[in-house]
Amino acid sequence: MVWFFFITLFFASIVSFLCLYIFINKKKRKPIATVDYPNIAQASDSVIRASLDMLKNKRTVMSFNDEDSLYVKLSKLKAWFKRDDRQKRYAYFNFPLAFLLLGIIDTYESSGESVYLNKVEARCRDFISEDGELLFTFDKVDQAMFGLVFLRLYIITKSKKYLIASDKVYRNVLFFVADDGIVRYRKGVNVAFIDTIGLVCPFLIMYSEITDCEQASILAKRQIKNVMDIGLEKNGILPFHAIDLTLNMPLGPVNWGRGLGWWVLGLAPLAAKSSLAEPNEYMITLQNLVKFLDTARLDKKYWAQFIGHTNDNTIDSSATLMFLLASQQGGLESIKSNELLSVIKHCVNSSGVVTNSSGDTIYINKYSRAKGASELAQGLMLSLLSKVTL
């Protein structure tokens, strides 16, 4: 009888939860409230405070689901009951947190305040030991971004553990390289994703520069050359989401905002090795895309989740901030404080949290409908704020 009582109570709780969920979602959802900050300095202070609070989380803020649906909530509830933390670990040891760490590193370098560096190093104890051993399973190339974090920390601190950790990241990336020299986004899947360009190439380029590993530079250029050869639309400007390497055929749309963002972030470090006066092929490719993006900018301020005609003209902060940062990193133009402030108006709330960032992509032709805060957008905003005059 006791077990029957508890089982009845359990199912009654589930039914109550479902009824409450349905009732709440019948109400009209309020749009995300953003703030028109009076000046860039005040906005920066607010964003930095929110970023440090976000860094304390052991659960990823960015959505890794298609949408904030009842099914998603039930799946999370099921995982909680089963004590299944695989999804939580998948999201935590992934690129969003790496971008947040990079943004805080940029904040440290621009301000010189050691508190920011200390917090980054403290969080990195979750990822590497004092001997430089990786404390997480490297099972996706997205994690190469942690290698970029370790390289930046090595440059600043000269601590060997960060160089050792970056060596291990590099060797792990090589396990994703097939005989054709192309990095697979996931092992066993014969497809090259545009995500790889922005998530792996910046690490490979910096690793090559610091360690004099020419092969790392060759590998990065090989990925970009592959996209240039068969991964761009007929005008040679916009990249497709992916390339089917078996059929040698492009896959997916050319107007996915964050996909374009991954492309320009990967091009920027190589473009920066030249100049506007004497541009290399990477600079020219970056210039052509940025010129196109300028014509597609909504209200001359931001970009949506999909470029061009779309039924959602609200900002996608992740794509917008990627475009602005890559343009600066590539040496095309420096962002001005008033330009960044106009973007902040559309995506930063009163707490300093960067919102309106699309969730993690599900797959080719299947994109997240969830928008909200993310470590990715928060870190990108920090990096941009570190470059403007406050």
Task: Please tell me about this protein's structure.
The chain has 390 residues and is mainly α. Helix content is 55%, strand content 3%. A three-stranded antiparallel β-sheet has the order 1-2-3. Strands 4-5 form a two-stranded antiparallel sheet. β2 (242-244) and β3 form a beta hairpin. α5 packs antiparallel against α6 (114-124), α9 runs antiparallel to α10 and α11 (257-271) runs parallel beside α13. The longest helix is centred in the first third of the chain and has 25 residues, at 2-26. The relative contact order is 0.14. Mean pLDDT is 89; it is low at 21-29 and 69-84.
Strands, helices and their partners?
Elements: H1 2-26, H2 40-55, H3 70-81, H4 86-92, H5 95-111, H6 114-124, H7 144-157, H8 160-174, E1 191-193, H9 195-211, H10 214-230, E2 242-244, E3 249-251, H11 257-271, H12 281-295, H13 317-329, H14 337-347, E4 357-358, E5 371-372, H15 375-385
Antiparallel strand pairs: 1-2, 2-3, 4-5
Helix pairs in contact: 2-5, 2-15, 5-6, 5-7, 5-15, 7-8, 7-9, 8-9, 9-10, 9-11, 11-12, 11-13, 13-15
* SS class: mainly alpha
Rg: 21 Å
Q: Quote the average pLDDT.
A: 89
Strand percentage, roughly? under 5%
Shape: globular
- Uncertain residue ranges: 21-29, 69-84
Q: Report the end-to-end length measured between terminal Cα atoms.
A: 68 Å
